[in-house]
Specification:
Length: 328
């Protein structure tokens, strides 16, 4: 076949012409690899989930470790509130009042705090703050009630250990973004002190599948597909709970207290409607919120293409957001 007659790649594997040159090079290679990766099979048993997670760990652990190593952060494994955590300390860290807590992504069924080191290492380096990454139990071993309780247990232990909540920020990406926001709503309902600021990176704020871009962008998103997320949803929450505010925080009551929130994402994400709807819900409740979107960027692009202009800009803005809102 003449190359000019070769069928065009599906839209989801085409690199947008409007991204930065650095992003274009990395994304082209990423999309080519994604195009050749077979679709995952649906897990049926706990052993199937464990096997799927091992495969994902093997794919994502090396680049995350390389990024953390390149940034020169120190990684320490500890236990807080009887839960494993990973403490990520930047080179220029000076002990003080401020700190960050992180809940990782992975559709609630993948990864660990020890695997997804890239994003917390980036924000630790940008802020000079220590990040404590919470290694919550994955679904289906634990579902949303237990997982949100684990986040709250670590949060309460940090406060009991001397952290000022107004000086402590919370962040999460993808499922971790939904979990972070849902946990804040649960903190508020239990009358716990809230974080000084919240950073949501490509948050899965609505696991029910509602939202315009689940349809309009599903042929353009190179990372996520509604079909492959469906079994993750069922592992984490029963259908009757899919719109519970702690599960899908876009449905939360924002008329009560809520911390200043920065939501970041890309225009190549089926979750784009999550970002917009969640931002509007927080703003309509009368709270500070910033919606910071990036042209042509895929899911959690900050750690996928960390050297790109878009990612460096996003991380710098997140660092400035925490600096502006966390007390000294």
């Amino acid at each position: 076949m003449n190359p000019s007659q070769a069928p065009a790649l599906p839209l989801r594997f085409q690199t947008p012409r409007t991204v930065s040159p650095q992003a274009a090079v990395t994304l082209a290679a990423l999309y080519e690899a994604s195009r050749q990766t077979p679709e995952p099979t649906t897990p049926l048993s706990q052993a199937d989930f464990d096997d799927a997670n091992r495969q994902m760990e093997a794919a994502f652990a090396p680049p995350n470790a390389q990024l953390a190593d390149a940034l020169g952060v120190t990684i320490r494994r500890e236990t807080i509130a009887r839960l494993p955590v990973v403490r990520i300390t930047p080179r220029d860290h000076r002990p003080g009042r401020r700190g960050l807590a992180y809940v990782h992504g992975g559709a609630y069924v993948y990864f660990s705090a020890g695997t997804l080191l890239g994003l917390p290492a980036l924000i630790a380096t940008a802020t000079s703050l220590e990040v404590i990454s919470i290694d919550y139990t994955l679904a289906p071993r634990a579902r949303w009630e237990a997982v949100t309780d684990q986040v709250l247990a670590v949060w309460e232990a940090l406060l009991a250990g001397g952290y000022d909540p107004a000086a402590l920020g919370l962040l999460g990406d993808s499922a971790g973004g939904g979990l972070a926001a849902g946990s804040v709503l649960k903190m508020r309902d239990r009358r716990l002190a809230l974080p000084g600021a919240l950073w949501l990176v490509s948050p899965w704020s609505d696991i029910s599948g509602a939202g315009d871009t689940y349809e309009t962008l599903k042929s353009a998103d190179p990372i996520l597909a509604p079909e492959s997320l469906a079994w993750c949803v069922q592992a984490y929450a029963d259908p009757a709970d899919h719109r519970h505010p702690y599960v899908s925080p876009v449905y939360g009551d924002y008329g009560a207290a809520f911390p200043p929130t920065l939501i970041q994402g890309g225009t190549r994400e089926i979750f784009l409607s999550n970002f917009v709807r969640h931002y509007q819900a927080i703003r309509m409740g009368g709270h500070d919120a910033v919606l910071d979107l990036y042209e042509g960027m895929p899911h959690v692009f900050q750690s996928v293409v960390p050297d790109a202009l878009e990612s460096r800009t996003a991380i710098a803005r997140a660092a400035a957001f925490f600096d502006a809102h966390l007390v000294r």
